[in-house]
Amino acid sequence: MSKTLPETDIDDGDVEERAASELAPIELVLTPEFCGVRLDKALSQLLPEYSRSRLQQWIESGLVTIDGQPARGKTLSLGDETVVIQPQAAPEDQAFKSESMPLSIIHEDASILVINKPAGLVVHPAAGNWSGTLLNGLLYHSPALAGVPRAGIVHRLDKDTSGLMVVAKTLQAQTDLVRQLQARTVKREYFALVWGTPHVAGKVDAAIGRHPRDRIKMAVSEHMSAKPAVTHYQRVATGVLDGRAVSLMRCQLETGRTHQIRVHMQSIGFTLVGDPLYGKPHLASVFGRQALHAHRLGLVHPASGEECEWSASVPDDFADLLVHAGMDAMIAE
Known about the structure:
4-stranded antiparallel β-sheet, 7 helices, 333 residues, alpha+beta, single chain, 27% strand
């Protein structure tokens, strides 16, 4: 039986204050055996619990003093100095800590969460985004998720893509959802606004791999490392934006590769409005992000076996864009 549940906005309040990043100072006196030894090397031997690169970072950041004076990276020890170190947690140490943040919960039960992710929210911690991610918010909302790999996240949306995601709350649910994703039975439907006027309907069946020259981009590829990717699309409406034709597309995924819709639509000549990575630079400023929204999600409930489906309307900025393009915003609900 299919069901669509009303959306409930859960506001967990202001983002919680972080625990102090500073740790207790470490004071030690270098012994004569370290005379002539570089300070970072001496400290790495005396403090094996910290990596040498971490100790070097603290020295460069002015967090290490020798006899009260800031240490230098290539300082040679004399063997009788007093060294004081003010340790600080690395950003990645905060990656899997809970943070209070508002989460738009579409559905929740003992096995799964369905979330309407806003644009601008990173899903999983990584370099440059070690905190403030959806994962951090999930751990605050449901602390038991600390016992599930990746806090139950089984698929992702790009930072600036909005829409529906399912999260597993138990190991059993996670295993089942991963199997459904691998079997391509999870239904994922997106709305995308693209430049131009594609055919009324079609399919892109083209493997995707890392771009050969730009490592932050993906591309259609025949390289042996490229992974199969299939996107079905249907033109829903047409309009005009900034004097150029645009089309609202309904895209259905068979697979879930990184940047799949963005790459596939670019490969057939129709880049997404606002896409700063795959679109034309002089057109990217028309919208503050790629115009892409995960509109519908369908799957078999991992506990009950029931066929479930949820939908989420495009967010306000996307709806306003459609109106500006001469389309009825209600068309993407």
